[in-house]
Write a structure and sequence with these properties.
230 residues; two-stranded antiparallel sheet
């Protein structure tokens, strides 16, 4: 098997699966925290959650681990993609791949690239301003129980006033849906958790996760733009 930065093809798949599951766990937490906007209390619950996430030393440290895991996932995925293309015979490429696989399982590199582009926009809109430059687009601060909080909820309202931004975010969530639909089950399989006893349960959980989490993420900018929450 071909060697590379992360070892053999088997090891590359292992690291892809491991980092993928780590990123999936992050998505679950991130989704739960951001879903606090639907409490519809003027952003108080969301701002308190965001404040905790931004000031807790353990979570801030995990952000570094998250970025490292994301980099490994991206680099490893691209290496596997180009390695597989190089190894694939021309005659095989002309066969009907759809007979044995879905289009999204064959398009993981493309979907991953689209998600990466979406992440760059997302990080620019929120994380860069609140974690690095501390130059929030909302200068107004709020006070809850006498404690000062950044108005990140107000920042979301401002960012999602633009229709093109909402469209970009929704398209990013659609790409995430297709990526997860294959990646969730594939990760467990690469780690050896594909026993027939658990296969159906993993498939059900994976499909549910792939639909619910991106749908919740997509509902946030739509709800902000449509002013369904305030």
């Amino acid at each position: 098997m071909a060697k590379g930065l992360f070892g053999s093809s088997l090891m590359k798949k292992f690291w892809m699966a491991l980092t993928g599951l780590f990123l999936i766990s992050f998505l679950l937490v991130h989704c739960a925290v951001n879903a606090a906007i639907f409490v519809n209390d003027g952003g108080e619950t969301f701002n308190k959650f965001a404040h905790f996430m931004g000031t807790n030393i353990i979570i801030r440290t995990m952000e570094i681990v998250l970025f490292l895991g994301l980099i490994v996932h991206i680099v490893d995925g691209l290496m596997l993609y180009f390695q597989n293309r190089k190894a694939r015979p021309v005659a095989y490429a002309k066969q009907n791949d759809g007979a044995s696989s879905t289009w999204y399982s064959r398009s993981m590199a493309l979907l991953g690239t689209l998600i990466l582009l979406f992440l760059v926009i997302h990080l620019k809109d929120f994380w860069l301003k609140t974690r690095i430059t501390e130059l929030s687009v909302i200068d107004q601060h709020l006070y809850y129980d006498g404690e000062k909080y950044e108005n990140l909820y107000g920042e979301m309202q401002l960012v999602f006033k633009e229709l093109w931004v909402v469209i970009v975010y929704v398209l990013g969530c659609i790409s995430l849906f297709w990526h997860l639909l294959h990646g969730f089950k594939s990760a467990f399989q690469s780690l050896g958790f594909n026993h027939s006893k658990y296969k159906n349960q993993i498939a059900i959980v994976g499909d549910a996760f792939s639909v619910i989490v991106p749908a919740v993420f997509a509902a946030m900018p739509i709800a902000m733009y449509m002013e369904w929450i305030a």
